[in-house]
Amino acid sequence: MKVAKSIRGVRSVCQSWRAQGEEIAFVPTMGALHAGHLSLVDRARKLAPRVATSIFVNPTQFGPGEDFDKYPRTTRSDLKAFRERGVDLCFLPTKEVMYSEDHRTKVQVTGLGKLLEGQTRPDHFAGVALVVLKLLNMVQPNILILGQKDAQQAVVVETMIRDLDLPVKLVRGPIIRDRDGLALSSRNRYLNAKQRAAAPILWKTIKEARRLVQQGERSPRRLVQKLEKQLMAEPELKLDYVVAVNALTLEPVSKLEGRILIALAAYFGKTRLIDNIEIRV
């Protein structure tokens, strides 16, 4: 596996592949890898002859008081995991490589970044869109692979790709869960034993949402009320939101029909976790 630390280095490798007619699938990460990330790498390997990844904890998507400084950095083990998975290239830039001191440009996908997660993290998706656009410009992959766990992120990036006519196809990988249903996340390691034992309530609530819709519930208001009640019964949990929205636009719906995204976010102590499911009605 090649490791590139400069923009020139990553472009040189990727340009050599394209010159040989080899397509590239790209999996951007912030490191602290788990089985969810590696499932995206496996997906990439099936879709293209060359697999590129990146590890970069992006400061522009963290707000004041968030966990940028303590976000886990496990670069050595991450690179080992990528090598064992057959990754061809890992881009490992520093903040100074990604952003010059006088960097001024912002990328705002109007509207989408202010819904759901954006209500708690108002500048998060502007930072996500910026770093993904920069990485796409550097790697120039044919396929971009993101995880469904960050469903809103995927919608924001899909919209950016469409609006800017970027020559890349976005593929979503499914949520990977622990044995008790908790969605894998690099932030799960923040949980103490009591919080970890309580956290699967998120998956139980997601499953309850699916069951209610399958049994005929079509009122988003009633559905959300039932889900909120179930979540707030857990003393270790502080609810941020639970919503039922259009899976394509993230806008509220008056009736549960078509492609619906049930999404939720909650705190366990200071750790904020998210989960979702897309349901076709």
UniProtKB/TrEMBL annotation:
The active site is at H37 (proton donor). Its main location: cytoplasm. Pathway: Cofactor biosynthesis; (R)-pantothenate biosynthesis; (R)-pantothenate from (R)-pantoate and beta-alanine: step 1/1. Its EC number is 6.3.2.1. It is found in: Cytoplasm. GO terms for cellular component: cytosol. Beta-alanine binds at Q61. ATP binds at residues 30-37, 147-150, 176, 184-187. Keywords: ATP-binding, Cytoplasm, Ligase, Nucleotide-binding, Pantothenate biosynthesis. (R)-pantoate binds at Q61, Q153. It catalyses: (R)-pantoate + beta-alanine + ATP = (R)-pantothenate + AMP + diphosphate + H(+). GO terms for biological process: pantothenate biosynthetic process. The keyword Ribosomal protein does not apply. Catalyzes the condensation of pantoate with beta-alanine in an ATP-dependent reaction via a pantoyl-adenylate intermediate. HAMAP family: PanC. PANTHER family: CYTIDYLATE KINASE/PANTOATE-BETA-ALANINE LIGASE (PTHR21299), PANTOATE--BETA-ALANINE LIGASE (PTHR21299:SF1). NCBIfam families: cyt_tran_rel, panC. The reaction proceeds by a bi uni uni bi ping pong mechanism. Belongs to the pantothenate synthetase family. This is Pantothenate synthetase. It comes from Eiseniibacteriota bacterium. The lineage of its organism: Bacteria, Candidatus Eiseniibacteriota. The gene is panC.
